[in-house]
Amino acid sequence: WAFPTHNDDMGITTTGMTLRQYFAGQALTGLLAKYGIDNQDHFMEQTAIDAYDMADAMIARRYK
Question: Could you say which of 1, 21, 43, 62 would form a disulfide bridge with 17 (CB–CB 3.0 to 4.6 Å)?
Answer without folding.
Answer: 21
